[in-house]
Amino acid sequence: MDADFLQARIDATQAQIVALETAITNFTATGLTQSYTLDTGQSRQVVNRSTFSEAERVLEALYNRLANLENRRNGCGVLHVFPGF
């Protein structure tokens, strides 16, 4: 993967994180919100109270994805050491 591709994926993931955090904030800030349209610039999705816990799980996954992409971009990675080799 080249640096431009990785940066584009990082930018897209960051946009998804911001959009999802905004939706979660709207749910928690107002008890009146029953649904929220999540627009990441790539897609639109309606999130409602029944999918709130799923949204939190997805947010955690997005942060993990962002960390992995940034590590790849910065040349960091995991070294697998196999005993006996």
Give the strand order of the largest sheet, numbering strands 1, 2, ... along the chain. 1-2
Task: Quote the beta fraction.
Answer: 5-15%
The number of strands is 2
The CA-CA distance between the termini, in Å, is 28 Å
Molecular shape: elongated
| Rounded Rg | 17 Å
Report the total helices.
2
Q: Biggest β-sheet: count, sense, barrel?
A: 2 strands, antiparallel
Helical content class: 55-70%
What does the average pLDDT come to? 80
Can you write the helix and strand succession as a string?
HEEH
The helix-and-strand class reads mainly alpha
User: Stretches where pLDDT falls below 50 for ≥5 residues?
Assistant: none
Which short descriptors sum up this protein?
elongated, 85 residues, mainly alpha, single chain, 2 helices
